[in-house]
Amino acid sequence: NAGVTQTPKFQVLKTGQSMTLQCAQDMNHEYMSWYRQDPGMGLRLIHYSVGAGITDQGEVPNGYNVSRSTTEDFPLRLLSAAPSQTSVYFCATLVTGLAGRRAETQYFGPGTRLLVL
Amino acid sequence: GNSVTQMEGPVTLSEEAFLTINCTYTATGYPSLFWYVQYPGEGLQLLLKATKADDKGSNKGFEATYRKETTSFHLEKGSVQVSDSAVYFCALSVNSGGYQKVTFGTGTKLQVIP
Predict the structure, then answer these.
(1) Across chain A, where does the E strand assignment appear?
(2) Measured between alpha carbons, how far is A84 from A103 in angstroms, rounded to an integer?
(3) Are B95 and B103 in contact (CB under 8 A)?
(4) Mean pLDDT, chain B, as a whole number?
(5) A-chain residues within 8 Å CB-CB of B44?
């Protein structure tokens, strides 16, 4: 199992450019999430999905779009990049127990480091 | 809302010293509690967890006890090694409207010197 994979590992964008951060998992987990990690702020949830075709906003969704057409893939789109989106982005799956009533663990990808000039 | 508060770092210790990283939380409902570890250049990975009051999570010599009365989940290790140098995140998860809501603390960087 590859677990959670993310591409690219590093990207430089100019303000106003768009791009898609890719995330894929081979563990058949229903929950997937996107976080951004900034110094002193921990991880903040951008968007999440509880299954194919179902997505919802997290804590900091502005400027980002997601879709979930398959269980395996959960891409994150930056529509018009801004310097404030310079960050490290992590994709994660979430395993639940007790028929979804309890979180068991999250599996994180290695991250994408994004620099917006 | 839900929140997790961790002690600020960095925490610098000599090898074989005792480690405590404090974590307190506020949550609506009955959360599960986690500690994640992030090594340089990598994603987070689960270190340990506890799902109900008085449960003790343990892994790789690290321990944390779910204290409902003090809303705390402090991380401890009796003798740290250089290889334990990493950033440690406390987190909670609660069921909200049928979905799991996960909240992370800001992380505590641990540096262990030989």
Answers:
(1) 4-7, 10-13, 19-25, 31-38, 42-51, 54-57, 64-66, 76-78, 87-97, 102-108, 112-116
(2) 31
(3) no
(4) 93
(5) 43, 90, 92, 106, 108
**pLDDT (tens digit per residue) in B39-68:** 988 899 999 999 999 999 999 999 999 999
For the record, the structure tokens of B80 come out as 């740290």
- Taken as a whole, chain B contains a residue count of 114
Q: Cβ separation of A45 and B107 shorter than 8 Å?
A: no
Are B91 and B75 a contacting pair, CB within 8 Å? no
At A31-68, the pLDDT tens digits run 999 999 998 888 999 999 999 999 999 989 999 999 99
**Chain B interface mutation, best of A105, A107, A112, A113, highest count of B Cβ atoms under 10 Å:** A105
Strand partners, B4: B25
Average pLDDT over residues B67-74: 96
Q: Which of B56, B82, B34 shows the shortest CA–CA distance to A104?
A: B34
Token couple for A7 = 């591409």
Question: Cβ neighbours of residue A39 under 8 Å, at least 6 residues apart?
Answer: none
Would you state the pLDDT for residue A100? 66
